[in-house]
Specification:
The chain contains 5 helices and 13 strands. It has 260 residues and is an alpha/beta fold.
Length: 260
């Protein structure tokens, strides 16, 4: 099982504590679950002080269960040194931030979508990250696979769709990846499976939500009023999803899909 959200901890703010309570309840029921923190973990600038004062009191209690992706706020000081110091090997190579791991029968890829940062070196197929991605996907031909990074290729939110990560998206389509999870826009959105790839935007980890201006093509569900996390139950040949809202009786979204 994977529990996912991005755009998490602010000071002051209480919604990250509410989503942390959701995680605690889920981990009690599913102690082997992994948490995907999909960027912008500690506002405003991703400093050591931000992690200590804002992130640690809420999501920090699950530190050993988190596999993070770097967001733009992690580079609030121009570099993400404190982010890489915070997460060590679990954030991938220092200064780069891309890596992969297996979760049951699934292969999971984590990318760094801060394409313009010099240490990242771009996101295109000829970049270091792009070449690593192609090799990693080729080496792991699992029936089911998933990827996450911060900036969404498709979004109906305030920041909108991000052409800078189109090479990531095209790699997902070519490799028949099943699920992509992103943050950056502070709302929840589910897109239809296109060419076998379904995208979720889950920027609902605790930061103030953004409005949704109008749906992009293939957007099936969107909601901006409620903090929460996405629960992905990963079976050998399929997955179930459910958005878990931090308020009782609030919005939810759920379904099941076979892997491609």
């Amino acid at each position: 099982m994977l529990l996912a959200a991005g755009d998490i901890a602010t000071c002051p703010g209480r919604d990250d504590e509410a989503t942390a309570d959701l995680l605690a309840a889920q981990l009690t029921e599913h102690p082997d679950a992994v948490i995907a923190a999909v960027g912008d973990l500690a506002y405003e600038r991703g400093t050591a002080a931000d992690f200590k004062q804002c992130f640690a009191p809420s999501w920090g209690r699950f530190h050993d269960r988190i596999r993070p992706a770097a967001g733009n706020h992690e580079y609030g000081t121009g570099v993400a040194t404190d982010y890489f110091d915070e997460w060590g090997d679990r954030a991938g190579p220092a200064g780069k931030g891309w890596y992969s791991y297996d979760l049951g029968a699934w292969h999971v890829v984590v990318l760094n979508s801060n394409c313009g940062v010099p240490s990242v070196g771009g996101c295109g197929p000829d970049s270091e990250q792009g070449k690593w991605l192609a090799a990693d996907l080729a080496a792991h031909a699992n029936r089911c696979s998933l990827a996450y990074w911060h900036h969404p290729r498709w979004s109906s939110g305030l920041h909108g769709s991000q052409p800078s990560v189109d090479s990531f998206w095209q790699a997902m389509v070519a490799a028949h990846v099943d699920v992509v999870v992103n943050g950056h826009d502070h709302h929840y959105e589910r897109f239809a499976s296109v060419s076998g790839v379904r995208e979720f935007v889950v920027g609902t980890g605790g930061a103030p939500r953004y409005p949704v201006a109008g749906p992009e093509a293939n957007s099936e569900v969107w909601h901006s009023g409620t903090p929460g996390v996405l629960r992905l139950t990963l079976h050998a040949a399929s997955y179930d999803w459910r958005f878990l809202a931090a308020a009782d009786g609030a919005f939810t979204d759920e379904g099941s899909t076979p892997c491609t």
